[in-house]
Every structure is written in C-alpha cells, then in structure tokens.
C-alpha cells in the first residue's frame, strides 16, 4: 500500500513494501525529484539496504562456522513493512524478524524506518533494535535515485555533483561480481565538484569512503543544486545503471559496503560492519533537501 504525507513545501509517497520512498514532489511546481522506477532501467526508486549493503564474496557469509547465502543488498527491500505511526507530515514503518529471515540471517531484530517532512527536506531515520541475547552484526544504507536530467533534457550533459569538500574526492570501484577493488581514482577536483563525462557510469558504482563528505548535491547545467543528500554516514555510493545512459543518479549514504574482492573473513570481520550488543539500538538518519 502507498502512503502519502505533505507539508507546506513538499509531498512525499512511501510504499509499505520495502518501506520504500517512491516520490518527492514540489507543491509549488509539481516537479518530481525521485526516479520513476521504469524497469527497463531500474525498477526500484529508493530501496532500503539491510542487513547488508552491496555484494558478498561468493554471495555468502560465514558466521559461527556456518555459511549463509545472501543476495546483494540483503532482504529488507523485498519485505512488507507495517505502518506504526501516521501523521500528516510523518510516517513510521516496522519490519520484525521472522522464520524466513532467521533462515538466512541468524539474528532477531526490529527495523524501524521513519520519514518526516521538515520545510524543504525529507528526513529519513533508521532504527535497528537488537532483540537477541547475542551481539548482532549488520550493515544498512540508502539507495535513493533522483531524476537526472530533471527538465526532460536528452541526457546528463552539463549535470554533475558537488561533494562540498573544497578538495579532491577519491573513490573506489567494483569488479564484475560487485566486489570492491584495491586502489582509488579521483572523481572530483580540488573544489569538490565534477560534471558527468560521457560513460562515467559505465563501469558501476563509485564508493566514496572514510567520511570524505557529509553532503552530496546534484547540480543542473546552470551549476545550481537541486537535490542535496546529507548524512554522517562514513560511505557514499554514487551510481547509475551501467551502459544504459539511465535518466537518474543514485546518491547513497551507507553504514557498510560490499566485500573487498580479496576478503576471506567472517561476518564479524567485514569492513565497515556495525556491531550491536543485546537489546541495544542503532539509530542514524539522512536528509534529502530540495532546492526549487
């Protein structure tokens, strides 16, 4: 079921399946900022990545000596959430572990997802509650896709990103199996800005690690910010479908990422993983701000 919320500036829609953000529109102009989810490019709009972000080595992980298969980005995006709170400008969704999740992820949990409109921004909050009597290991992240180009231009020519760093930005890449390669490349110059060159997205996601930025903006051909994603997450993914010239760009704050191609450790040893003690709560958020 799709739910709508509204304030004086924006209207947002969220689907209960996956608790997925589907739309952010300006009330004044009617402009849609979220990707439409056309399957010929990518059927999703803003899936929640939990309890894994990205791909695992051999599509499996090891915990307490047992191997568990796991698909890319985990399973939360493909499950029905329950609405627990609904206001005119705020919605909360809940996913609780069950027998189907415990078969592939041996931890009980509550995953609360909150959406709240504040002025020209949407705040998204994640709360992960460890309901086990043991330590829980997980990753969580966003995968929000925004229309780019925004004004029906034929392609992304003239569009770009501002990482708001004031210095160069380095990114890691992945191989054909979705695993991170060693080495980094510069994707933004000393001002922290870049324009999309032809073929920029043809080889997959760019992974910006080590808290290089806490704010990433999409720029239109006039150099104007029109969507800004802010978060304290230590990693950001930047993506658009490979070799499709798709009319959207994903800006993805992550607490966790794919395995490195050379990784040979256990679940507890995964890089950038989060570790939550029994009955503790992990809470983080990110914000999508719209500039009209």
From TrEMBL:
This is Aldose 1-epimerase family protein. Pfam families: Aldose_epim. It comes from the Bacteria. Gene3D superfamilies: 2.70.98.10. InterPro entries: Aldose_1/G6P_1-epimerase (IPR008183), Gal_mutarotase_sf_dom (IPR011013), GH-type_carb-bd (IPR014718), LacX (IPR037481). CDD domains: Aldose_epim_lacX.
């Amino acid at each position: 079921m799709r739910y709508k919320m509204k304030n004086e500036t924006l209207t947002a829609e969220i689907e209960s399946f996956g608790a997925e953000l589907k739309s952010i529109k300006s009330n004044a102009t009617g402009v849609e900022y979220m990707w439409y989810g056309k399957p010929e490019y990518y059927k999703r709009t803003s899936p929640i990545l939990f309890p894994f972000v990205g791909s695992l080595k051999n599509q499996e992980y090891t915990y307490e000596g047992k191997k568990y298969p796991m698909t890319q980005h985990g399973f939360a995006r493909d499950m029905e959430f329950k609405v627990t709170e609904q206001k005119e400008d705020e919605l909360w969704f809940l996913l609780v572990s069950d027998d189907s999740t415990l078969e592939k992820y041996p931890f009980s949990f509550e995953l609360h997802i909150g959406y709240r409109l504040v002025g020209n921004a949407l705040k998204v909050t994640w709360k992960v509650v460890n309901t086990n009597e043991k330590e829980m290991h997980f990753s969580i992240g966003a995968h929000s896709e925004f229309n780019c180009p925004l004004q029906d231009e034929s392609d992304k020519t003239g569009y770009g990103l501002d990482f708001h760093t004031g210095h160069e930005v380095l990114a890691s890449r992945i191989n054909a199996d979705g695993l991170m390669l060693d080495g980094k490349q510069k994707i933004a110059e000393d001002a922290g800005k870049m324009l999309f060159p032809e073929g920029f997205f043809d080889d997959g996601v760019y992974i910006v690690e080590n808290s290089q930025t806490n704010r990433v903006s999409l720029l239109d051909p006039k150099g104007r910010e029109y969507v800004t994603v802010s978060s304290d997450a230590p990693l950001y993914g930047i993506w658009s479908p490979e070799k499709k010239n798709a009319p959207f760009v994903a800006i993805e704050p992550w607490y966790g990422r794919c395995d490195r191609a050379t990784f040979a450790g256990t679940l507890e040893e995964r890089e950038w993983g989060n570790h939550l003690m029994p009955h503790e709560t992990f809470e983080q958020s990110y914000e999508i701000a719209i500039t009209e």
